[in-house]
Amino acid sequence: MPVRQLPETIVNRIAAGEVVERPASVVKELVENAIDAGATRIDIFSDGGGRRRIGITDDGAGMTHADLSLATDRHATSKLDDEDLLSIRTLGFRGEALPSIGSVARLGITTRHASEPHAWSLNVDAGDKSPIMPAALSQGTRVEVSDLFYATPARLKFLKTDRTEAEAIREVVRRLAMARPDIAFSMAGEERAPVTWAAALPGPAGQLTRLGDILGPEFRLSAIEVRAEREGVVVEGFAAAPSLTRANALGQYLFVNGRPVRDKLIIGAVRAAFSDYLPRDRHPVVALFVTLDPQEVDANVHPAKTEVRFRNAGLVRGLIVHALKEGLAREGRRTAANSDGAVLDSFRPNFAPNFPPRPNANWDWRRSPSYPAAYPTGPMPGFDGSAALAEPGQAAFDVGTPTADVRFEAAPNNDLIDRPLGAARAQLHENYIVSQTRDGMIVVDQHAAHERIVYERLKASIAANGVQRQLLLIPEIVEMDEATVEQLLDRAEELAGFGLAIDSFGPGAVAVRETPSLLGKTNAGSLLRDLAEHMAEWDEALPLERRLMHVAATMACHGSVRSGRRLKPEEMNALLREMEDTPNSGQCNHGRPTYVELKLSDIEKLFGRR
User: In 3D, which of 218, 513, 456 has the Cα closest to residue 325?
Assistant: First the structure.
């Protein structure tokens, strides 16, 4: 077959396959054009998931007659001052969006520039351009796209349902709205109520307002401001406290020079920064904005411009990790207790005056583990109906053997009440410390709290002068399968850095000769088995620092106060004081909260006093 030049319409449709993947891609390109045109308000309308119609209206600079005639030609753009593709300062620059859209749909553009006496309009039908005609428009540009992919019917088969495509459009607009809180956005259509986000004030406060409008009040209440700058690279934004997480990474919104991206390097940096705070199956919610010289980032990696490549990737990654860790450490004691209403809801009874029953309102209190088996569940012999009315009230005071070990502190110390975590008053179920503050109460999980304290001590000791070891008088022999023994011995040098010295003791056993002094007396066999389980998930790509922190976290768990241990009042108060002096004490190193707090006003609401 001889070589031939493809017709312009076919070239445009091939380009459309790269740029216009689905209706959301059309919305992204057109909204980015509006942003680059200096718009202060952008209105988006869609119908049929964007298949039937997409409308974008902005109040930007608009185009002149001459600009409009070139706008739908391939590789025609107003976004580049010269041919330098390493200095991209706009969202769009390829000059393929409008011709690609016009080649697979019906495209209509109406625009007015301030220097023109009136507006102009142009229509493109499957690549065929109409003459430019006068039109009526006060300012800006209005773009309408209808019958998307009608010129390439095969593409329609790969689109999802209208609802799914409409949600993809909303997600695109949400990301662009987060990047530009100074621009007002509105979305309408798809049989949903219109959504409007007003323009916010400049600065972090306005940025948080926009993020709260989009991500919800939970994010606004738990948001932690983060910022770091080094060598011309600025990382800023907000991260939700570890108490607010997602089951996937879709709650991570990342922007580079105002461009929404999905960059593996940034996502990996976020995961590393939160590794000390979250369980493995949970993901943080963050909105991070990276600003740097356009010469230091390549935005031309992907046709859809969703990926970037940094010249100094290590600097960017390190700065993101530093910014997030610094912010999390600063707000280390923030917990889920007062970030939303979930804790309060768990305390509310099933029935309340003037409120409908909750879904579990049919729960039988007699099935509670705390209900003494000695209590009768049926009619009591020897009592008539009138006497039986009073019996439940009398039985309620006959508590019998306590279902929890409760250690009460007679009178609170006034000096301790004013401390952030208050004065210890009781221990419940040999695991939970109840303390009193000046304006509320706090419930502490003693094991989780001490686990974080030991973990932070280990990290500080390693950073300062290594871990102090204690030599076992008689080495402890731990028997395991050969594969596990080999795994541990391969990492023996790393474990020795934490004061855990092990040697081979035959094909199926390990001899533990030294343990970290900080852990005191510990069960070496249980510790080694837990470490082996973690090591099975490691790969060579996991940085050594992260591997060491996994070891430290496991050791901290084994060296902390166990659940079920009875504590004296002075021990409970000592634990509270250590928590106050320990960074990140709001969560244990597995991501669980170490305490919850109820303000006095919240308690009064529970009892209807407010």
Answer: 456
